[in-house]
Specification:
This protein is an alpha+beta fold. It has seven helices and 16 strands. The protein has a domain at about 65-310: Cyclophilin (Beta Barrel), CATH 2.40.100. It has helices spanning about 10-15, 20-30, 55-65, 105-115, 170-180, 265-270, 315-325, and strands at about 70, 75-80, 90-95, 125, 130-135, 165, 190, 200-205, 205-210, 215, 225, 240-245, 255-265, 290-295, 305-310, 345-350. Helix 3 packs antiparallel against helix 7 (about 315-325). The radius of gyration is 25 Å and the shape is globular.
């Protein structure tokens, strides 16, 4: 996949082979030329100041002005407290919920489940290596033992895995126009077709795929989605999972994406892998208990968080650096980047 800021023609021109005859003439000329005079001290390489390396993505993020950061409302956070680890250390996972227009039926259910304290006393039940961590009621498949769900949950149709792309169409059209002119898009990066979408874009803080008619949130590392049974079931939101491996993009538009882990991912990715089918734990003792899950506005003392606005010039520079590493470690810029390799920076608000 190729970043539009590179331009299709520029990509191919960079690989055009120089004419071999010109190379031969140049070599012959160099052999017949008089010896070059010794360099003067002023022309010595040691006297030439070293060229400053381009900034790495993390350095661009660190230098971003305060105005380029956008606050995350506590009411848009889901806070999960797991039982302490073997050393007694607390384990908190903070999830940012998707904004409208995405997945709002499931997110409404999640808010109701958190308000009802439904997840208290449930557990992490599945850890499949390179895939997902899944949590909820361990007896959810047993109609006799299953924990009753709170009243008023919405049954959401699978059609809502995606939504109208009308809001991103002008952005994509503008980016394509910039590509035709060979100029980079000034702000939000837009990328060409990959294996799973005609176009991908980081839009309002989230990676999104679109086919021109619909758009949908994308599965990347740390994405949170809704567990479900076979269609037409779409899940209620009571069973959730987080991606802990290679981005399973085949799930896009097949399962509801509802958010992403922004802090505490290590508490999920480091859990012991399940030894049962597809990573489920075989015994209750293997599961990690969940103490509570609450909406952030109901958690006393929760830090404030903010993300680097994806409409800012700082994010555009960061995304370009992710696609084209020019800092001192790298030899060749890649010329493109996978949408999941442009994670949106999130940080705690200082002070």
């Amino acid at each position: 996949m190729e970043a539009l800021s590179q331009g299709r023609e520029g990509w191919h021109k960079s690989f055009v082979m120089k004419h071999p005859l010109l190379l031969s003439v140049a070599l012959l000329a160099s052999c017949n030329a008089a010896p070059a005079p010794a360099p003067t001290p002023e022309a010595s390489p040691a006297a030439v100041p070293a060229q400053k390396s381009a900034l790495a993505p993390t350095e661009i993020v660190a230098a971003a002005p305060a105005a380029d950061w956008a606050a995350i409302a506590p009411s848009d956070l889901l806070v999960m407290d797991l039982a302490p680890d073997a050393k007694g250390a607390a384990r908190r996972v903070v999830i940012q919920l998707l904004p409208p227009p995405f997945s709002q039926g499931w997110i409404g259910n999640i808010r109701k489940l958190a308000a009802a304290k439904w997840w208290d006393g449930t557990s992490v039940n599945r850890v499949q290596d390179g895939y997902v961590v899944q949590w909820g009621d361990p007896d959810g498949e047993d109609k006799v033992k299953a924990k009753p769900l709170p009243a008023g949950l919405t049954l959401v149709d699978a059609a809502y895995y995606a939504t109208s792309s009308s809001e991103v169409r002008p952005l994509v059209a503008d980016a394509i126009a910039h590509e035709a002119l060979g100029t980079p898009h000034p702000n939000t990066p837009v990328y060409l077709k990959d294996a799973y979408a005609d176009t991908t874009v980081v839009w309002r803080g989230w990676p999104v795929g679109t086919d021109g008619e619909k758009m949908w949130p994308i599965h990347c590392y740390a994405t949170v989605g809704v567990g479900r049974d076979y269609p037409p079931d779409t899940g209620s939101g009571a069973e959730l999972y987080a991606v802990i491996g290679q981005a399973p993009r085949q799930l896009d538009r097949n399962i509801a994406v509802v958010g992403r882990v922004i802090e505490g991912m290590e508490h999920l990715s480091s859990l012991p892998r399940g030894t049962g089918d597809i990573g489920f734990y075989k015994t209750a003792e293997e599961r990690t208990p969940i103490l509570s899950i609450r909406i952030g506005s109901d958690v006393p003392g929760l830090p404030r968080y903010e993300y680097l606005s994806t409409e800012s010039k700082s994010f555009a520079s960061y995304a370009d650096a992710r696609a084209n590493r020019r800092d001192s470690f790298y030899i060749r810029p890649a010329g493109g980047v996978d949408i999941c390799n442009v994670p949106v920076p999130v940080r705690r608000v200082q002070g």
